[in-house]
Amino acid sequence: MKTIFHSASDRGIQDHGWLKAAHSFSFSNYHDPAKVHFGLLRVLNDDIVAPGMGFGTHGHDNMEIVTIPLRGTLAHKDSLGSEGFIKPGEVQIMSAGKGIRHSEYNGSATEEVNLFQIWVFPKVRNIEPRYDQKAFDAETWKGKFKTLVSPAEEDGAMWINQDAFFSRGDFEAEKSTYTIKHPGNGAYVMVVEGEAEIAGQSLSRRDAIGVFDTESFDIDVKGKASLLVVEVPME
């Protein structure tokens, strides 16, 4: 088993006034040659967007983009005609493929929105662009990991154009094991809230650990913790 620890305090912090962003990997004006990607996971941004503000229309291609709101409401509009709001408990996924343009704004005039935006390199390039959005019941990931995104859409998971799996779990003072779902994959685990010991490493809020070259690893939650696992091919 191999691991790489990313402290929350070592993320690339950007404060643009209307946007406060913490980058787990090199992005925009933040560049760390030691933190460009974890396997095929390219971006994990922890964004806080001020009321009524957001990202104007811009384009992407050949990237799988997953957005997970943590609090507040995100307004989305894209070149495929998709338009609406995304709230906590929901997941949005876009296969940028040949090219897609979209905008994302805080859907509230009074409250901040906090979200994770995650980019994964695609398995097949230049597919037709695609948009999907789904609500999940948070009860389904209490005391266990619930797969939200997978390449096979099993058990209600959303489809992704990669051998990747996104899972969430809320645990309370308990031990568990995460088993790698696809041979050769690694898992990047973000502690969304709380504290846990993962693969022997102590982690606090927004700390992350990448675990690879193993079939499984242990998780020991201290008190209460909410975890996000992004499992991706390492090559």
String of helices and strands: EEEEEEEEEEEEEEEEEEEE
Biggest sheet features: 9 strands, mixed
Task: Provide the number of structural domains.
Answer: 2
What general form does the structure show? globular
CA-CA gap between termini: 16 Å
The beta-strand count equals 20
Which architecture of the largest domain does the CATH hierarchy give at level 2? Sandwich
Q: CATH superfamily assignment of the largest domain? A: Jelly Rolls
Query: Approximately what portion of the residues adopt beta-strand conformation?
Result: over 45%
User: Are there runs of 5+ residues with pLDDT below 50, and where?
Assistant: none
Q: Residue-averaged pLDDT, rounded?
A: 97
Number of helices: 0
Question: What's the helical proportion of residues?
Answer: under 10%
- The CATH C-level class name of the largest domain: Mainly Beta
- Please state the structural category: mainly beta
Rg computed from alpha carbons, rounded to a whole number of angstroms: 17 Å
What name does the CATH topology of the largest domain carry?
Jelly Rolls
